Protein backbone atom coordinates (compact mmCIF):
# COMPACT_ATOMS: atom_id res chain seq x y z
CA UNK A 1 0.00 0.00 0.00
CA UNK A 2 1.02 3.63 -0.56
CA UNK A 3 0.95 5.78 2.60
CA UNK A 4 1.30 9.58 2.74
CA UNK A 5 3.86 10.67 5.32
CA UNK A 6 5.56 13.72 6.79
CA UNK A 7 9.07 13.58 8.23
CA UNK A 8 9.91 16.07 10.99
CA UNK A 9 12.46 16.61 13.71
CA UNK A 10 12.67 18.18 17.14
CA UNK A 11 16.29 19.24 17.77
CA UNK A 12 17.60 16.31 15.75
CA UNK A 13 15.21 13.68 17.10
CA UNK A 14 13.51 12.64 13.83
CA UNK A 15 10.12 11.10 13.24
CA UNK A 16 7.77 9.82 10.57
CA UNK A 17 4.17 10.99 11.00
CA UNK A 18 1.14 9.36 9.40
CA UNK A 19 -2.61 9.73 9.66
CA UNK A 20 -4.37 6.62 10.94
CA UNK A 21 -7.11 7.22 8.37
CA UNK A 22 -4.59 6.44 5.63
CA UNK A 23 -3.80 2.97 7.02
CA UNK A 24 -5.62 -0.28 6.32
CA UNK A 25 -6.93 -2.02 9.41
CA UNK A 26 -4.77 -5.02 8.53
CA UNK A 27 -1.53 -3.04 8.93
CA UNK A 28 0.51 -4.09 11.96
CA UNK A 29 1.89 -0.77 13.14
CA UNK A 30 4.91 -2.27 14.89
CA UNK A 31 6.00 -3.83 11.58
CA UNK A 32 5.35 -0.56 9.77
CA UNK A 33 7.50 1.28 12.32
CA UNK A 34 10.45 -1.07 11.83
CA UNK A 35 10.13 -0.81 8.05
CA UNK A 36 9.65 2.92 7.67
CA UNK A 37 12.22 3.90 10.33
CA UNK A 38 15.03 1.80 8.83
CA UNK A 39 17.77 4.18 7.72
CA UNK A 40 18.78 2.14 4.68
CA UNK A 41 15.65 0.31 3.48
CA UNK A 42 13.08 2.79 4.77
CA UNK A 43 12.79 6.56 5.14
CA UNK A 44 14.80 6.55 8.35
CA UNK A 45 13.74 7.92 11.74
CA UNK A 46 13.93 7.45 15.51
CA UNK A 47 10.23 6.72 15.69
CA UNK A 48 6.81 6.59 14.03
CA UNK A 49 3.75 8.57 15.16
CA UNK A 50 0.19 7.84 14.09
CA UNK A 51 -2.52 10.52 14.30
CA UNK A 52 -5.75 9.14 15.73
CA UNK A 53 -9.05 10.67 16.77
CA UNK A 54 -9.50 11.18 20.51
CA UNK A 55 -12.58 11.27 22.72
CA UNK A 56 -10.79 13.22 25.47
CA UNK A 57 -8.42 15.51 23.58
CA UNK A 58 -7.98 17.29 20.27
CA UNK A 59 -6.13 14.24 18.93
CA UNK A 60 -4.37 11.06 20.04
CA UNK A 61 -0.72 10.31 19.42
CA UNK A 62 0.28 6.67 19.04
CA UNK A 63 4.07 6.39 19.25
CA UNK A 64 6.32 3.53 18.16
CA UNK A 65 10.09 3.32 18.53
CA UNK A 66 12.24 2.40 15.53
CA UNK A 67 12.45 -1.20 16.78
CA UNK A 68 8.65 -1.50 16.71
CA UNK A 69 8.13 -1.25 20.46
CA UNK A 70 5.43 1.04 21.85
CA UNK A 71 6.46 4.28 23.54
CA UNK A 72 4.11 5.75 26.12
CA UNK A 73 5.26 9.30 25.45
CA UNK A 74 7.87 11.22 23.46
CA UNK A 75 8.76 14.81 24.33
CA UNK A 76 10.37 15.88 21.06
CA UNK A 77 7.85 13.77 19.18
CA UNK A 78 4.79 15.41 20.68
CA UNK A 79 6.03 18.84 19.57
CA UNK A 80 6.31 17.51 16.01
CA UNK A 81 2.93 15.84 16.37
CA UNK A 82 1.38 19.16 17.40
CA UNK A 83 2.73 20.84 14.24
CA UNK A 84 1.53 17.91 12.11
CA UNK A 85 -1.95 18.17 13.62
CA UNK A 86 -2.09 21.98 13.48
CA UNK A 87 -3.22 22.40 9.87
CA UNK A 88 -4.21 26.07 10.24
CA UNK A 89 -0.63 27.22 10.99
CA UNK A 90 -0.90 30.61 12.71
CA UNK A 91 1.65 33.03 14.12
CA UNK A 92 -0.70 33.46 17.09
CA UNK A 93 -0.37 31.12 20.07
CA UNK A 94 -2.82 28.21 19.92
CA UNK A 95 -3.65 25.74 22.70
CA UNK A 96 -3.90 21.99 22.09
CA UNK A 97 -4.56 18.91 24.18
CA UNK A 98 -3.01 15.66 22.96
CA UNK A 99 -3.92 12.22 24.29
CA UNK A 100 -0.97 9.88 24.88
CA UNK A 101 -0.49 6.61 26.74
CA UNK A 102 1.02 8.76 29.51
CA UNK A 103 -2.15 10.85 29.75
CA UNK A 104 -3.36 14.15 28.27
CA UNK A 105 -0.61 16.65 27.50
CA UNK A 106 -1.38 20.36 27.23
CA UNK A 107 0.55 22.31 24.60
CA UNK A 108 0.80 25.75 23.09
CA UNK A 109 1.99 26.15 19.50
CA UNK A 110 2.97 29.12 17.35
CA UNK A 111 4.12 28.98 13.74
CA UNK A 112 7.51 30.64 13.20
CA UNK A 113 7.78 30.18 9.43
CA UNK A 114 6.78 27.74 6.69
CA UNK A 115 9.07 25.05 8.09
CA UNK A 116 9.01 25.58 11.84
CA UNK A 117 6.76 25.94 14.87
CA UNK A 118 7.68 26.71 18.46
CA UNK A 119 5.89 24.43 20.92
CA UNK A 120 5.61 24.42 24.71
CA UNK A 121 4.51 21.22 26.43
CA UNK A 122 3.40 20.68 30.00
CA UNK A 123 5.31 17.44 30.56
CA UNK A 124 3.63 16.78 33.92
CA UNK A 125 5.17 16.01 37.30
CA UNK A 126 8.17 13.67 37.40
CA UNK A 127 8.02 10.55 39.55
CA UNK A 128 11.29 9.99 41.41
CA UNK A 129 11.88 6.31 42.17
CA UNK A 130 15.53 6.56 43.21
CA UNK A 131 17.83 9.54 43.63
CA UNK A 132 21.62 9.25 43.89
CA UNK A 133 21.72 5.47 44.20
CA UNK A 134 24.61 3.36 42.92
CA UNK A 135 24.69 0.66 40.26
CA UNK A 136 27.50 -1.62 39.09
CA UNK A 137 28.09 -1.91 35.34
CA UNK A 138 30.94 -4.13 34.13
CA UNK A 139 32.94 -3.57 37.28
CA UNK A 140 32.41 0.20 37.49
CA UNK A 141 30.08 1.90 39.92
CA UNK A 142 27.84 4.73 38.73
CA UNK A 143 25.70 7.12 40.78
CA UNK A 144 22.29 7.34 39.12
CA UNK A 145 18.74 8.51 39.61
CA UNK A 146 15.71 6.71 38.25
CA UNK A 147 12.73 8.80 37.14
CA UNK A 148 9.49 8.31 35.25
CA UNK A 149 8.54 11.17 32.94
CA UNK A 150 5.83 9.32 31.06
CA UNK A 151 8.55 6.74 30.29
CA UNK A 152 11.42 5.48 32.50
CA UNK A 153 14.76 7.31 32.56
CA UNK A 154 18.10 6.79 34.27
CA UNK A 155 20.04 10.01 34.86
CA UNK A 156 23.80 10.03 35.47
CA UNK A 157 25.88 13.17 36.07
CA UNK A 158 29.47 13.06 34.90
CA UNK A 159 32.42 15.43 34.45
CA UNK A 160 32.65 14.44 30.78
CA UNK A 161 30.12 13.06 28.34
CA UNK A 162 30.77 11.81 24.83
CA UNK A 163 29.67 9.16 22.38
CA UNK A 164 31.92 6.55 24.02
CA UNK A 165 30.17 6.50 27.40
CA UNK A 166 26.76 6.91 25.74
CA UNK A 167 27.20 4.04 23.29
CA UNK A 168 28.95 1.65 25.67
CA UNK A 169 27.25 2.18 29.04
CA UNK A 170 23.87 3.25 27.63
CA UNK A 171 22.83 -0.11 26.14
CA UNK A 172 24.09 -1.99 29.20
CA UNK A 173 21.88 0.08 31.48
CA UNK A 174 18.94 0.00 29.05
CA UNK A 175 18.67 -3.76 29.54
CA UNK A 176 20.07 -4.00 33.08
CA UNK A 177 18.15 -6.42 35.30
CA UNK A 178 17.47 -3.57 37.74
CA UNK A 179 15.01 -2.08 35.23
CA UNK A 180 12.40 -4.71 34.44
CA UNK A 181 10.86 -2.94 31.43
CA UNK A 182 14.12 -1.47 30.19
CA UNK A 183 15.00 2.20 30.50
CA UNK A 184 16.23 5.24 28.65
CA UNK A 185 19.65 6.46 29.82
CA UNK A 186 20.84 10.08 30.03
CA UNK A 187 24.39 11.26 30.68
CA UNK A 188 24.58 14.85 31.92
CA UNK A 189 27.18 17.56 32.45
CA UNK A 190 26.37 20.72 34.44
CA UNK A 191 27.88 23.79 32.78
CA UNK A 192 26.41 26.40 35.14
CA UNK A 193 23.43 26.81 37.46
CA UNK A 194 21.13 27.39 34.49
CA UNK A 195 22.88 25.42 31.75
CA UNK A 196 23.39 21.69 31.17
CA UNK A 197 24.42 19.23 28.43
CA UNK A 198 22.66 15.85 27.96
CA UNK A 199 23.52 12.83 25.78
CA UNK A 200 20.85 10.11 25.51
CA UNK A 201 20.71 6.40 24.82
CA UNK A 202 17.03 5.86 24.04
CA UNK A 203 15.19 2.64 24.82
CA UNK A 204 14.16 1.02 21.56
CA UNK A 205 16.01 3.54 19.38
CA UNK A 206 19.64 3.68 20.56
CA UNK A 207 21.83 6.77 20.51
CA UNK A 208 19.63 9.71 19.51
CA UNK A 209 20.55 13.35 19.01
CA UNK A 210 17.94 14.37 21.57
CA UNK A 211 15.20 12.99 23.79
CA UNK A 212 12.54 15.31 25.18
CA UNK A 213 11.44 13.13 28.09
CA UNK A 214 15.12 12.40 28.80
CA UNK A 215 16.08 16.07 28.87
CA UNK A 216 13.08 16.77 31.12
CA UNK A 217 14.03 13.89 33.45
CA UNK A 218 17.65 15.05 33.64
CA UNK A 219 16.51 18.60 34.34
CA UNK A 220 14.11 17.37 37.05
CA UNK A 221 16.87 15.47 38.86
CA UNK A 222 19.26 18.41 38.53
CA UNK A 223 16.72 20.80 40.06
CA UNK A 224 15.81 18.36 42.83
CA UNK A 225 19.46 17.89 43.81
CA UNK A 226 20.28 21.60 43.65
CA UNK A 227 22.42 21.49 40.51
CA UNK A 228 20.18 23.72 38.37
CA UNK A 229 17.85 26.67 38.85
CA UNK A 230 14.14 26.24 38.13
CA UNK A 231 14.58 27.97 34.76
CA UNK A 232 17.35 26.48 32.66
CA UNK A 233 18.59 25.78 29.15
CA UNK A 234 19.47 22.19 28.28
CA UNK A 235 21.62 21.31 25.28
CA UNK A 236 21.33 17.97 23.49
CA UNK A 237 23.51 16.95 20.57
CA UNK A 238 20.81 18.07 18.13
CA UNK A 239 19.79 21.36 19.70
CA UNK A 240 18.51 23.22 22.75
CA UNK A 241 15.37 23.20 24.88
CA UNK A 242 14.17 25.57 27.58
CA UNK A 243 12.83 24.03 30.80
CA UNK A 244 10.95 25.54 33.71
CA UNK A 245 9.50 24.00 36.86
CA UNK A 246 6.06 25.42 37.64
CA UNK A 247 4.69 26.13 41.12
CA UNK A 248 2.82 22.82 41.45
CA UNK A 249 5.82 20.75 40.33
CA UNK A 250 5.00 20.18 36.68
CA UNK A 251 7.67 20.96 34.09
CA UNK A 252 7.21 22.99 30.92
CA UNK A 253 9.45 22.17 27.98
CA UNK A 254 9.76 24.61 25.06
CA UNK A 255 11.45 23.95 21.73
CA UNK A 256 11.07 23.79 17.95
CA UNK A 257 9.34 21.35 15.63
CA UNK A 258 10.61 21.40 12.05
CA UNK A 259 9.47 19.90 8.75
CA UNK A 260 12.00 17.86 6.76
CA UNK A 261 9.99 16.44 3.87
CA UNK A 262 6.69 14.98 2.73
CA UNK A 263 5.96 12.10 0.40
CA UNK A 264 4.48 8.62 -0.05
CA UNK A 265 5.85 5.42 1.45
CA UNK A 266 5.45 2.06 -0.30
CA UNK A 267 4.67 -0.54 2.38
CA UNK A 268 4.07 -4.21 1.72
TL;DR of this structure?
The chain has 268 residues and is of the alpha+beta class. The chain has helices spanning 29-37, 75-85, 163-174, 212-224, and strands at residues 2-10, 13-19, 47-52, 59-65, 70-71, 94-100, 103-111, 116-122, 127-137, 140-148, 152-157, 184-192, 195-202, 206-208, 231-236, 239-245, 251-266.
Topology order in helix (H) and strand (E) letters: EEHEEEHEEEEEEHEEEHEEE
How would you sum up the global shape? Answer: globular
Instruction: Give the low-pLDDT segments.
Output: none
Number of helices: 4
Number of strands: 17
Class by SSE composition: alpha+beta
Biggest beta-sheet profile: 8 strands, mixed, barrel
- Biggest sheet: strands side by side, in what order? 1-2-3-4-6-7-8-17
Distance between the termini: 6 Å
Q: Which strand-content bin applies to the residues?
A: over 45%
Work out the helicity level: 10-25%
Per-chain topology:
Elements: E1 2-10, E2 13-19, H1 29-37, E3 47-52, E4 59-65, E5 70-71, H2 75-85, E6 94-100, E7 103-111, E8 116-122, E9 127-137, E10 140-148, E11 152-157, H3 163-174, E12 184-192, E13 195-202, E14 206-208, H4 212-224, E15 231-236, E16 239-245, E17 251-266
Parallel strand pairs: 2-3, 4-6, 11-12, 13-15
Antiparallel strand pairs: 1-2, 1-17, 3-4, 4-5, 6-7, 7-8, 8-17, 9-10, 10-11, 12-13, 13-14, 15-16, 16-17
Amino acid sequence: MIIPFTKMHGIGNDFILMNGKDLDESVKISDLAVSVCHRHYGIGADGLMILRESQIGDARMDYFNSDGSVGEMCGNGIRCFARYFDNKRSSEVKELSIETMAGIKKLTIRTIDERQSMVSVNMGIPIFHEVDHTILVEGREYVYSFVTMGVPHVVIFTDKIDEAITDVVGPLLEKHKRFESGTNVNFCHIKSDDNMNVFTWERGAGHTLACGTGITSAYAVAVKTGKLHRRAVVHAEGGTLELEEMDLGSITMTGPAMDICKGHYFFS
